[in-house]
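JOB MANIFEST
job_type = single_chain_structure
chain_count = 1
residues = 268
[input]
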Amino acid sequence: MMKKIAIYCVTYHSYSELYHYLQSLNHASAQSEVCMVDIYIADNTCEDQEQIDTQCHPSLTIKVFPFYENLGYFGAIQKMMSKTNILLYDYVIISNVDVIISPDFFSKLANYPLSPNDGWIAPAIISQNDGCDLNPQATHRYSLTKLKILHFFYQHPTVNWLYEHTLHLSKRHQHHQPGQVYAGHGSFIVLTHEYFVRCGIIDYPIFLYGEEIYIGEQCLRNKLKVNYFPSLQVNDIGNVSTGKMKRSFYYKCNADAIKYIIDNYYKE
């Protein structure tokens, strides 16, 4: 049976990466005879905008939303979803544009052994920087204590820098078996039709960061499974837009995200 797949992605001063991303999507779509792929692109670029060619990738249907203001990651995703019919699709992918999918990605996704309670499929996301798989983001739900510690770190950048350059590095080199986890990585998120039936469209009012925990909590609250499935593979270039952020803004966004998650999903 033909599978309908929507991809919602956001570009911010990353037109070159977007072009290569669309090339990989077009190639994978052309390799699959069982998928129809619609691409929705939010252009958050505030100045020096470029025209995005929607005709040079014949295996894709592409629609551009020229917002031309930085709405943040899920802010732009939510705005696009509010203007489209999300329930038309078997799978919905939310992604950055600094990624490249494998040529067999759509063929493998179409044959994924979907169960009625699957909400999020987390593929292998291979970092170009060190070759590590960024998934799963978390195998188990974060404790309230850990979230409070993270919030403290982001409010105190020097402490957080030490964490990121010591303990956090060891996590990236861990290996995991396929199966149920708490949350995948936010650069490339594959959600099922059932996710949107139970949870509705994305509604996360934070500019950036914490998206993985938000969706993990939505799945938990609505009795949906998150499955790590490394047979699906994505290559992550990483930090094309976020790497340009001021560090003070990076810490503020993360602190705001953790506070929102605690306030809305954790009760003491």
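[summary]
The beta strands are 3-11, 35-43, 61-65, 91-95, 99-101, 118-127, 179-181, 188-192, 225-236.
Residues 12 and 148 are 31 Å apart (CA to CA).
exit_status = 0
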